[in-house]
Amino acid sequence: MNDNHQPDHTHDHEHKHRKQIVNRLSRIEGHLRAVKEMTADGRDCAEVLLQIAAVRKALDNAAKLLLKDHLESCVINAGSGDDRTKILDDLNKALDHFIR
Amino acid sequence: MNDNHQPDHTHDHEHKHRKQIVNRLSRIEGHLRAVKEMTADGRDCAEVLLQIAAVRKALDNAAKLLLKDHLESCVINAGSGDDRTKILDDLNKALDHFIR
What we know:
- 2 copies of one chain form a homodimer.
- By secondary structure, chain A is an all-alpha fold.
- Chain A has a single domain, classed as Up-down Bundle (Methane Monooxygenase Hydroxylase, Chain G, domain 1).
- Chain A is 72% helix and 0% strand.
- The first copy, chain A, has helices spanning 18-40, 45-75, 81-98.
- The longest helix of chain A is centred in the middle third of the chain and has 31 residues, at 45-75.
- The relative contact order of chain A is 0.12.
- Mean pLDDT of chain A is 82; it is low at 1-12.
- At the A-B interface, α1, α2 and α3 of A face α1, α2 and α3 of B.
């Protein structure tokens, strides 16, 4: 992943659910850590697979919330012209990775 | 999730890729932590969505490796009768959650 924190990529507005999304991602991180420990402990594969599926579902829900926030605050207020085109292009690319 | 470590749920054999799977899950955990920080920092939504999709893909690949290990070592050596039926039932349930 790209880890460069570029200031021009930050938002100048606040998202309604940002804190909630960060909290969800924290919980998912904890869940994933538990799954890793289950695997290291040699727990049943089917059980581990179920938990990985649960982590994936939780991730999808966090992404859905983020997407709804994004639609409400960024896309609707995107103005027009090049800015709007870029925002929609970026969003479409991200969706292509999500919905396969 | 169920966090009870029940000794009767551990395996009595070693999986070929267990250590590799644990390492992958560790890396995914680190990736997810970075995505959480991106979100907290207010980074662009489309960028965060792309990274969440990358985490999901990495999780799917870890699950696939686990499943292959499971097929090689547990399912093939499952013996017969009730044990085999339970192992296949559990695996089918896990797959139902994965492939939707």
